[in-house]
Specification:
globular; 10 helices; 6-stranded parallel beta sheet
Length: 311
């Protein structure tokens, strides 16, 4: 990407999109286009087509999505598959119709099978059954990356996809039940500390293993791949390290300064038992994450304290 070329970041108000904008600005890119949901509803095909016909962006980072944790995915699967499919198909198709040079589609590691061999390589996609608790979201994301692949094969486009592991960082959603595990725990332990609660109850039994990537590191990889990678196969984005949910709760409690008891509600779902990405493809290209988990959580908690309105 040249410094002055027109770059559209879809979803710039979200955690990932805002991080991509920060990274582009840090690297000196000068022509970044953004639109709020009020200005451009990406689920509306006519609006998206009109926008692309007018603006003609040369590069697109597709980070817009309806996202949420286990509860949100379980309660609203129809909303998750419909809204995400509409966003993806409208943006990707409009980019192709308007001769966009390159598009990068942001997915999620939940696209991989529930019991995939660990760590999960990019080629394990569609080899067995998905995790039921986020199946609708995963199916939408698989469709998006496959549409990019099919356009490449049929029309010679240069559209790529990246599949991040669990993300966290500035501008996250800290909703008590609809957010992802790490921000939800930050809010829960913070409130327990403020309210002097003797205990905090967490979901499941604490045994699932998860990998976490600081969102600014993901943004750095997104720009790196836009400039250095072309291919039909997706690229995993992660650290290659994992931690149990039980150890994660202890770490978050320590950083926040909560000293009460941690209890477990085993009537609530655990989700996928293990979800570690094989990141050798990205590292072989010369990229590596920078932010360790303990430092990333500290930075995220600082952001939470500044911006507690996103509940």
């Amino acid at each position: 990407m040249e410094i002055n070329e027109k770059i559209f970041v879809a979803g710039h108000r979200g955690m990932v999109g805002s991080a991509i904008v920060r990274e582009l600005e840090r690297q000196g890119y000068e022509n970044i286009i953004v639109r709020t949901h009020k200005e451009l509803d990406l689920t509306r095909q006519a609006e998206v087509e009109k926008f692309f016909e007018k603006e003609k962006p040369q590069y697109v980072f597709l980070a817009a999505a309806k996202v949420g944790g286990i509860v949100a995915n379980n309660q609203s699967p129809a909303d998750f598959i419909y809204q995400n499919m509409m966003i993806e198909m409208n943006v990707i198709n409009a980019a192709w119709q308007n001769n966009c040079k390159k598009l990068e589609f942001l997915g999620s590691s939940c696209i991989y099978p529930r019991l995939a061999p660990q760590p999960m390589k990019e080629n394990c996609l569609l080899t067995s059954e998905l995790e039921k608790t986020n199946e609708a979201y995963a199916l939408a994301k698989i469709s998006g990356l496959k549409y990019c692949e099919y356009l490449n094969r049929q029309y010679g486009t240069d559209y790529i996809s990246i599949m991040p592991t669990n993300l966290y960082g500035p501008n996250d959603n800290y909703h008590a039940t609809n957010s992802h595990v790490l921000p939800a725990l930050i809010r829960r332990f913070h409130e327990a500390k403020i309210e002097n609660k003797s205990s905090v109850t967490c979901w499941g039994d604490g045994t699932p293993l998860r990998e976490f990537l600081y969102v600014d590191d993901l943004a750095n990889l997104c720009v790196f791949l836009m400039n250095n990678y072309s291919g039909n196969e997706t690229v995993n984005a992660g650290t290659g390290k994992e931690i149990s949910i039980k150890d994660l709760t202890k770490l978050i409690a320590k950083i926040i300064g909560y000293e009460g008891e941690i209890l477990w509600d085993t009537s609530k779902p655990n989700g996928t038992p293990r979800k570690l990405l094989d990141v050798s493809k990205a590292t072989s290209m010369g990229w590596k994450y920078k932010t360790e988990l303990i430092e990333g959580i500290r930075l995220t908690y600082e952001d939470f304290l500044k911006n507690k309105v996103r509940f």
